[in-house]
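User: I've been trying to design a sequence by hand for this structure and keep getting stuck. Would you show me what you'd pick, starting by listing the structure so we're on the same page?

Assistant: Good idea, let's start from the same input. This is the structure you sent:
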């Protein structure tokens, strides 16, 4: 594991907010020379601390008007059931996140769809067709006053 000091943490905070910042601007913001700043960023990338950069998109402009979090319980608590469920979910483009969680259900999903009709189709034709699914609880997102996912 790479030892991360306060300067590295400062660099990471800035890159999380703006992954496209130039090295010159980043270096000036964290009070380092450009070469020292670039070495630190490259070291964080090489160590896997920075695993990638991505574009943050506007869901509404992409035609996504419906977002929900779903809890899913399986009818069997085995490795084979989990693997089968996860393989089915990996093929579903509506599922943007899938987390295996603790508690009274096995999975938490974040699902995006064009609208309620499209979500119902996903709920019925995709989730309803996975034999390992025993329970589904849907929590519709009304607003997201804080969302720091990149």
């Amino acid at each position: 594991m790479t030892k991360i000091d306060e300067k590295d943490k400062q660099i990471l905070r800035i890159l999380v907010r703006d992954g496209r910042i130039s090295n010159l601007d980043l270096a000036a913001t964290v009070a380092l020379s450009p070469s020292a700043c670039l070495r630190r960023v490259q070291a964080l990338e090489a160590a896997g601390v920075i695993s990638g950069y991505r574009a943050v998109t506007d869901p509404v402009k992409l035609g996504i008007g419906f977002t929900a979090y779903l809890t899913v319980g399986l009818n069997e608590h085995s490795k084979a059931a989990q693997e089968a469920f996860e393989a089915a979910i990996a093929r579903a483009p509506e599922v943007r996140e899938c987390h295996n969680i603790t508690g009274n259900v096995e999975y938490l999903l974040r699902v995006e769809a064009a609208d309620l009709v499209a979500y119902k189709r996903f709920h019925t034709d995709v989730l309803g067709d996975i034999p390992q699914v025993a329970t589904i609880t849907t929590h519709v997102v009304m607003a997201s006053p804080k969302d720091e996912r990149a």
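That's my pick for every position. To get oriented when you compare it with your attempt: The beta strands are 66-74, 95-100, 107-113, 133-140. The CA atoms of residues 63 and 114 lie 6 Å apart.
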